């Protein structure tokens, strides 16, 4: 794993991205350009979240939301629970999940969105995880990693053909290799073939900031991205957006910078109220740490007067990530199963494992399930 700044591996520039189409209806209530420092931006985030909550609740609901487990894997405790944890275990476990969202546009056209459809096999080539695997004995790696299913296997079970997928969305592109999903323009040595798109009609919705940042990574970013995997993907497969957009009835993407510069979160209006999903935190209790039984979280939150616990494997702009989590916290409804916690669904959710003492979550969502 190199920590040096890698040279650009593809020619994405503001000019080339400007020529691409975009998608969605801009959400003006979430515009947060304010004068002043991070404290002023924090206050603006709370105010914007309250405005957006009331209007989004009237936007309708999608036809269905289904949750699909992909993989449970180890993750450094000091990253996932930032400085708050007192757990002795160096690693905790997180479960990556895909959401499949369906709705009909105003003209009746059916839409399918895949949120976090990670190619788990190719994701292992991420520099950080590749180095971790190299240093971990295979029996140990197999013991702490569980494959629950594949993207294509879940879609087959749901009766969704690959060509029916309209949109692919990630909160950010850490670890993601999209070559099999959107195809390549040249032969791929490591795959041994020229890859045709498995999802031929799908477009990847991504913040323009992140696409530009990936073309010239900072050393803080290099362990977590696979820039070479984007060298030969077709640029026209991307739909860059600038900020927050309403994508369909009860389906929105909001810009939540901080974890990465171009971070974004999925917001859903469902039969149980409003949900927010991202990897800004790894457990619902990280938004209300005063109710957490995880060692250290409640006391750290009180001592430092910080009301959220960041997922901090990258701290590109930590204050902005904090503010983005407050925005998410302001928007999400209370959980019906336990109102102490919010309907925040971590795209990678903290999962108990006997090898990781002190990291068993107080509360888990497991899934978002909705049918109109």
UniProtKB/TrEMBL annotation:
Keyword Zinc among record annotations: yes
Keywords of the record: Hydrolase, Metal-binding, Zinc
Cofactor(s) listed: Zn(2+)
InterPro entries reported in the protein's UniProt record: MBL_superfamily_lactonases, RibonucZ/Hydroxyglut_hydro
UniProt family annotation: Belongs to the metallo-beta-lactamase superfamily.
Name of the featured protein: 4-pyridoxolactonase
Species per Swiss-Prot/TrEMBL record: Paraburkholderia caffeinilytica
């Amino acid at each position: 794993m190199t920590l040096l700044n890698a040279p650009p591996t593809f020619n994405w520039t503001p000019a080339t991205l400007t020529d691409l189409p975009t998608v969605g209806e801009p959400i003006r209530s979430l515009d947060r350009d304010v004068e002043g420092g991070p404290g002023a931006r924090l206050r603006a985030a709370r105010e914007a979240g309250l405005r957006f909550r009331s209007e989004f609740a009237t936007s309708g609901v999608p036809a269905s939301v289904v949750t699909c487990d992909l993989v449970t894997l180890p993750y450094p405790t000091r990253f996932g629970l930032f400085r708050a944890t007192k757990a002795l275990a160096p690693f905790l476990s997180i479960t990556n999940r895909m959401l499949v969202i369906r709705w009909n546009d105003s003209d009746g056209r059916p839409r399918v969105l895949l949120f976090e459809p990670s190619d788990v096999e190719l994701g292992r080539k991420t520099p950080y995880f590749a180095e971790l695997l190299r240093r971990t004995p295979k029996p140990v790696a197999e013991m702490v990693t569980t494959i629950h299913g594949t993207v294509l296997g879940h879609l087959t079970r749901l009766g969704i053909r690959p060509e029916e997928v309209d949109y692919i969305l990630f909160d950010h592109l850490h670890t993601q290799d999209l070559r099999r999903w959107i195809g390549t323009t040249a032969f791929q040595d490591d795959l041994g073939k020229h890859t045709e798109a498995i999802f031929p009609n799908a477009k990847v919705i991504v913040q323009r900031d992140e696409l530009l940042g990936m073309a010239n990574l900072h050393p803080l970013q290099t362990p977590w991205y696979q820039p070479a995997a984007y060298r030969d993907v077709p640029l026209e497969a991307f739909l860059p957006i600038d900020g927050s957009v309403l994508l369909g009835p009860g389906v929105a993407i909001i810009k939540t910078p901080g974890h990465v510069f171009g971070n974004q979160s999925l917001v859903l209006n469902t039969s149980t109220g409003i949900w927010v999903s991202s990897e800004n935190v790894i457990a619902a209790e990280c938004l209300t740490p005063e109710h957490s039984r995880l060692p250290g979280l409640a006391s750290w939150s009180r001592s430092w007067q910080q009301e959220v616990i960041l997922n901090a494997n990258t701290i590109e702009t930590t204050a902005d990530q904090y503010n983005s989590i407050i925005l998410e916290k302001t928007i999400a409804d209370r959980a019906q199963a336990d109102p102490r916690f919010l309907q925040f669904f971590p795209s990678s959710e903290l999962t108990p494992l006997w090898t990781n003492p002190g990291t068993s979550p107080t509360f888990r969502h497991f899934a978002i399930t909705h049918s109109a």
